[in-house]
Structure formats: structure tokens, C-alpha cells
Amino acid sequence: MDAEEILAALPAADVPGALAGVRHRGTTSLAATGVSAPGGDEPLRPDAVVRLSSNTKPLIAALTLRLAADGLLALDEPVDRLLPELAQRRVLPRPSADPDGETVPARRPLAVEDLLTMRMGLGFVPEGPCPTVDRAAELGLGFGPPDPQGLPEPETWLARLATLPLLEQPGTAWRYELSFAVLGLLLARAAGRPLPEVLADRLLAPLGMTDTGFVAGPERLVPAFVRGEDRGLAVLDGVADSRWLAPPTFPDGRGGLVGTAADLLRFAGMLLDDGGEVLDPAAVTLMTTDHLTPEQRAAPGAAPFLDGGGWGYGVGVVSSPVGPRYGWAGGLGTLWYSWPGHDLAAVLVTQVLPPTASVFGAFTRAVEDALGR
Description:
Layout: H1 3-9, E1 17-24, E2 27-34, E3 50-51, H2 56-69, E4 90-91, E5 104-105, H3 112-116, H4 131-138, H5 154-161, H6 178-191, H7 195-207, E6 224-227, E7 233-237, E8 258-259, H8 261-272, H9 281-287, H10 294-298, H11 303-306, E9 310-311, E10 316-318, E11 325-330, E12 334-339, E13 344-349, E14 352-353, H12 357-372
Parallel strand pairs: 6-14
Antiparallel strand pairs: 1-2, 1-13, 3-8, 4-5, 6-7, 9-10, 10-11, 11-12, 12-13
Helix pairs in contact: 1-12, 2-6, 2-7
Domain Beta-lactamase-related: 6-366
GO molecular function: hydrolase activity
Protein name: Serine hydrolase
């Protein structure tokens, strides 16, 4: 199985260009196809820098486990010590209730693990209207595509979040996304340094992920696009005017990173190698083991995102015909999965929002068909 095989299986008309990377039994291959912009003639280069969007989350989860190993935090400790703004939470009777209405006290404090497992009690509510999520969007907390210049600075962001009640009791329900923004703030306070510095020193540098970070240079950055109702593509974020060219106002642990396919493959390889010199094997097991109950996986807030799978720390965990796989996708068109039983990791990189099921599905089928042969 190599990167060229994956690219050959993709429906080329759905994206202007794509990158693929495979690490199989220690051997790595990278390949590119298509162009960097629709209608253009500039080939998409294999070392292109792209917006990782939600593939930021696995890196933030790994950083959490690294800082826990250093004794800077404990997974079962309340967040109150580092984030006192979130102490003594109040909880709504139901997610659709008025955030200014009746609430009850949280039965226990939020814990660090609640953030890792996205069971903090706040996040997306795909099952229906939610006035609290509407309020969060009005407060500028970020409920859309990543925008490193569109959020308030961290202290202001956290103070605004603290005005909102929880939708559910801590630890009881899986809600996508918001908890990893909180987790990034907690890690910065635990280390006493800005999140970009902590991530670079404790995770990216040891792994040789030299092209990953919260800021991109224009030399290899490629534009990102959004798909319209007519399926045409419009520029979401360009290159010369990219919002990733300057340090972010809010280093966002949900989806703020840029990087390359090769770097993402290095991270995946570290997990396949039982953490290498970065994480303890037990930490890798924690990351890649489903922590949800069957009821949480099937709940309306989780099912559209998990699609029958579970959730570890920063990664989805799925059963497949060729064995368990774990990994995650980014809304701007990045996808990574590892099949540990086959010592294989594969990444796919495009820059189109939203990614199409045809492209992501072709990627997964190509890998699993090859593994099943």
C-alpha cells in the first residue's frame, strides 16, 4: 500500500488537488495530484502547507498527556486550579433551555479528562435549536471554520465562556469541539507559557514536525476553498492575505494549526511506535481507546460526528472489516487514520470545506481494500 494507490482511487473531479501519505511497516511514501487552485496550472506540491483544522485536536491531546507525565497536571484533577473561571458551574435542565433561565449546580467540577473526552457539557448541538450555542456565537467564541484572527485574546475568551451555563452535567454527554479550545488554555496555564511555545517545545520539535504550528509562511501555503450550493469553489482563505500569516489572537486547540502531510504522518508514526520517545505506551493506549458508553456514542449530539464509532483522547476510534482504526478528520479537508494491527498510518490532505463523503470514503476504502487483499 502506498500513497499513489490512494490518489488513484479518489474521484478527481471533487477537489482541485490532493496529497496522500502512507507509513506502512516503517516505510513512508508521499504523493500529490492535481493543482493548488481550481482552474489553475500550479501543481499541488507534496510539501504544501495546509490548514489542519480539527486534526489539531489529536496533537493537543498528546500534549496534554505529555504535560501530565511531567507532573504539570493530572487527568482526573478539576480544572479549577488552572482555570478558576470555570469553577462552580451551573447546568441547564435541557440543552434547548434559555441560558438566562433556571439552572442547577453541577454535581461535580469539570475535570481535565472531561475536556479530552469532550464531555465537559458544552459544544455543538446538531439535534435542534440551542439558545446557549447561539449566545456563544454572539460572544465570538468561534462556532464556525477556524479563524485565527477572528477570536478575542485568551483571557477575554475564557471570561465570556464563563458566563454560559453547561448544557449537561460534566462527564455525561459528548459534545463536539468547544472543550479543545478550553484544553489549549489549560495547557498554557499549566506550563506557564503560550500554547504555541509549549506545543513546539514539548511535541513538535521532538517529532521533527518543523512545518507545523499556528503561523504559516507564504512560500508553501496553498489556498483553502469553500464549496457553494452549486458545488463551485470560492476562496475561504488565500495565501498573500491568509489569516495564518500572523500569530493568532487566540491559539485555538480546536483547529488552529497548519502543517504538512509529512508532519501529520510523523505524528501518526509516533503513535504506531507506542509513543516513541515522546509518550509512554500507556498514554498511547489511553489516547486510542474508546472512553464513551454506548448511550453516549448513540446520542443525537454525538452520532452525526462519530458515525457509529467511539472517542478516545483527541481521536475517533472505529471498528473496521480489517481491524480497529483510529484517527480524525478536519473540516477543511484533512483526514488521518491508523490501523495499528497492520502497522499502517495514512493521511489525506485537501483544502475544501466541507470535505465530501465521496473523497473521504474513497480514501478509507482504498486503504482497507488493500489491507483486506
